[in-house]
Design goal:
Phosphatase 2c, domain 1, 4 domains
Length: about 850
């Protein structure tokens, strides 16, 4: 009778049934599959196959009583071997034959079983996917893994040959062609012995069934390490070079100190060592001069990693950013002082004390703990920045002199990366400080009557660089204020310095009372002709806190957004313009004039608030509008709205610096203004005086009547004398009283001292002597001359009483052709 084959799963159920098994036992496949093995084996003990069949599972042949379908029993030779199952569990492959007539005689079976159990050579069986289905104890020892850990694993997952994958190609060739592989010598490392090079002589042959089907491969592996020293030396060199090359791509990928240290420990463990740590000198982190090494050295651990089994030894490499102090005379102190590494190939209590606390009582290494140790200095640019440690477990080959060279190379590469990161951090710190100093302080961005201001600047955590974003609030004449947000291209000290220069230039031009378009035109020329400045974008808005008029001009910047009292939003339709410094020639900027409704908020921002990688900028602007939308909670401060907006949008994934400036136009009933036009005729002067008297009376400012009449008469007289078209006057009451006279004469007046006998030329001198401030500025249609007076203290010490009607202009004399609330220049 032939040999019957069947398989049992890990629970003892029949999972495969051959035709010979049907002939042997009389059970069909349908009757046998899924049944427990006690169907076949008489008096079978309960439990899983490995426990129930005992030594049979290790490959020994045993005579056992089996039960046939008709209930009869007979003695047979049963042989079982471990079988890997798809789910990672282990079952049994069983063969059963008749005692005296089996092709596989008892002697042959005993020989095969003894060979698997006692052979000093590695024996293994692979399936068609090169997965282990059977290994003997010798091969398991070669690979440093148990028999069970082999089963189901691929060859490439267990053995790493130094031939770049040729080993597996040879094995697949044997499967495909049937040509055996004889005595091929390989330099290998196994998963269980990653630090140990071995030389193997391997032979493999194809296994086929009786019908010619390919079942897998059988292999014989002989350890020839002692005979192949040259091969192993070459393999060790290749392994070290490979580690150094891998370190170049895996360590120092960022410019962050802690991350660089973590990259080294993650790379080294467990590939090179079982534990690693990186410590840097405390004065290195401080960025100052290194203190003398004649004193104890203080370090900070940036990173640590360990897979040591002993908990106490593992704690020596904890990733805890702990501080350490190494006294003079300790080996670690000597390493920092001299820059020389040290190696301990058999760690003792003194070594552990030097790692832990040189002053603490010595303790022996733990069982299966630290066996060997290397301490190497972090040397960069002639300085020792700290140290790196590598440790191996006592059950691995100890670190040796060749490993010491590799450790020094890894330490040197890491030190350069750490020093670069420190210099980058120092440069960034300077750039951030420079940028912060150049941004306006809190006292510079406080609001004024008729204007609430809030701002937010952030260098996002996702970006290690500093940008050229900025914002500004610049007080101007005549209740006006300039609101600015801009972005200087670049992310370095040069960008921050360029931003500072641009901000200074903008302040200077703004104080000249230039129109917004003229200011950006001159600023564009400055950026073009300054080697220190790169291209920049900005929005420049001039807002009048009394009239609520706002003129906005854009230089290639994202458009402002206006939020109304009810929470609705709109994009201000300002011409986008081109960035400053592009140098296109003949660049023209365009101003848009709007009036901010009461309790509305103008939002200026840089692209860092709205730009997202892979998204159009329009999507970001809509996200901004959505975050701004909806009615504000009662009593919500403008700064809360500003900070909340940044939090909402940056959490969506922003990775750039950003600046936000918000300006709210609150309700100010005490503010009022009047504007009217009159012909350039002498008769206009007395009419203006009459208008002044009536208006100031309505505003409860009679105390200023004589002064305003006098100064207004001087300015209107000058305009009547020199203007060709109508003269426009405006009086505005805010925190002060501002009077403006505009005409079409483009010549700006200047102050001169009249001689004693001159009949003219004293008007501006008089204005300059009496007014708190005065000045003149150019506008598109000519010029504006203005003066400012403080409001008188009201009776009883309270604030001035708001006139009835708030902002409604006073009635003009009938002779005036026009009166109303329109723009006067830039507001």
């Amino acid at each position: 009778m032939s040999i019957a084959s069947f398989a049992l799963d890990h629970a003892g159920r029949i999972s495969a049934w051959s035709a010979d098994a049907r002939s042997w036992f009389g059970h069909s496949s349908a009757e046998a599959l899924g049944r427990h093995y006690d169907l076949l084996i008489a008096e079978a003990p309960p439990g899983a196959p490995a426990a129930a069949l005992g030594a049979v599972a290790s490959g020994d042949g045993r005579v056992m009583s089996v039960t046939l379908r008709d209930g009869s029993r007979r003695d047979a030779l049963l042989t079982c071997s471990p079988l890997a199952e798809p789910g990672g569990t282990t079952g049994l492959l069983c063969q059963i034959g008749e005692m005296g007539r089996s092709p596989r005689s008892e002697v042959q079976s005993a020989f095969a079983d003894a060979l698997m159990r006692t052979s000093p050579f590695g024996l293994g069986v692979l399936d068609n996917e090169l997965r282990y289905v059977m290994v003997n104890d010798a091969l398991a020892e070669f690979n440093g893994m148990s028999v069970g850990d082999h089963l189901g694993s691929r060859v490439g997952e267990v053995v790493r040959a130094a031939d770049g994958g040729e080993y597996e190609k040879h094995l697949r060739g044997v499967l495909e062609t049937g040509e055996p592989l004889h005595n091929v010598v390989l330099a290998t490392r196994s998963q269980g012995r990653r630090d140990r090079d071995k030389a193997w002589s391997v032979s493999f042959f194809r296994l086929t069934g009786r019908e010619g089907q390919v079942l897998g491969l059988g292999g014989l592996i002989v350890d020839v390490t002692q005979k192949e020293t040259a091969l192993l030396d070459a393999s060790a060199v290749r392994q070290r070079l490979a580690l150094v090359n891998q370190a170049g791509s895996k360590v120092g990928t960022t410019l962050e100190l802690a991350e660089t240290a973590r990259e080294l420990t993650a790379f080294a463990v467990p590939e090179f060592a079982d534990a690693a740590s990186v410590e840097v000198r405390e004065d290195f982190l401080g960025g100052g001069r290194f203190r003398s090494t004649d004193r104890p050295v203080s370090t900070v651990r940036l990173a640590g990693r360990s897979v040591l089994e002993d908990a106490a030894d593992r704690a020596l490499f904890a990733d805890d950013r702990s501080e350490h102090l190494y006294p003079v005379g300790s080996r670690t102190h000597d390493t920092v002082r001299t820059g020389r590494p040290w190696l301990s190939d058999d760690v003792d209590a003194a070594d552990l004390a030097d790692l832990d606390d040189p002053g603490a009582p010595a303790r022996p290494p733990g069982r299966n703990g630290l066996g060997s140790l290397i301490t190497a200095p972090l040397l960069a640019r002639g300085r020792c920045l700290g140290l790196v440690r590598f440790g191996r477990s006592s059950h691995r080959d100890p670190l040796d002199a060749d490993d010491l060279k590799l450790a020094e190379e890894l330490a040197t590469r890491t030190a350069l990366s750490l020093d670069n990161a420190r210099m980058y951090e120092e440069e960034r710190r300077i750039a951030v400080a420079l940028q912060r100093d150049m941004l306006p302080g809190e006292h510079e961005i406080t609001g004024r009557p008729g204007l609430e201001v809030a701002s937010h600047y952030r260098s996002t955590s996702r970006s290690a660089k500093v940008g050229g974003d900025w914002f500004d609030v610049i007080p101007l004449s005549g209740h006006r204020v300039a609101l600015v947000v801009g972005d200087m291209m670049g992310h370095d000290i040069q960008a921050a310095a360029g931003m500072g220069q641009l901000r200074t230039a903008m302040h200077t031009l703004a104080r000249l009372d230039l129109e917004p378009v003229d200011l950006l035109t001159r600023l564009d020329d400055i950026v073009q002709n300054s080697p220190a400045m790169q291209h920049a974008t900005c929005v420049y808005a001039v807002y009048n806190t009394v009239t609520r008029a706002c003129g906005i001009v854009n230089a290639g910047h994202p458009p402002p957004v206006l939020r109304h009292r009810d929470g609705s939003t709109e994009i201000v339709a300002v011409d986008p313009g081109v960035p400053l410094g592009i140098g296109l020639g003949g660049t023209e900027f365009a101003v848009v004039d709007i009036e901010l409704p009461e309790d509305s908020t103008l939002v200026l921002y840089t692209d860092g608030l709205i730009e997202r990688r892979g998204e159009d900028i329009e999507v970001g602007i809509e996200s901004l509008r959505s975050a701004l939308g909806g009615p504000a909670p009662a009593g919500e401060a403008l700064q809360e709205l500003c900070d909340g907006l940044v939090t909402a949008l940056v959490d969506l994934g922003g990775d750039d610096d950003l600046a936000v400036l918000m300006a709210r136009a609150p309700s100010t009933p005490e503010h009022c203004w009047i504007r009217c036009k009159l012909p350039p005729e002498p008769r206009s002067v007395p009419l203006v005086r009459d208008l002044v008297r009536r208006t100031l009376h309505d505003w409860d400012l009679d105390a200023l009547r004589d002064t305003v009449e006098l100064l207004m008469s001087e300015l209107v007289t000058n305009s009547v004398r020199h203007a060709r078209g109508q003269v426009e006057i405006q009086m505005a009451r805010g925190e002060t009283l501002v009077v403006e006279v505009a005409d079409d004469d483009e010549r700006l007046p200047h102050l001169t001292r009249a001689a004693d006998d001159d009949e003219r030329g004293r008007g501006l001198t008089l204005v300059g002597d009496i007014a708190a401030q005065w000045g003149a500025r150019s506008i598109d249609s000519g010029k504006v001359v203005w003066f400012e007076l403080p409001l008188p203290a009201p009776d009883g010490g309270g604030p001035p009483v708001a006139p009835s009607g708030g902002r409604s202009p006073a009635p003009a004399p009938a002779a005036f052709p026009e009166t109303g609330q329109g723009p006067l220049g830039a507001g």
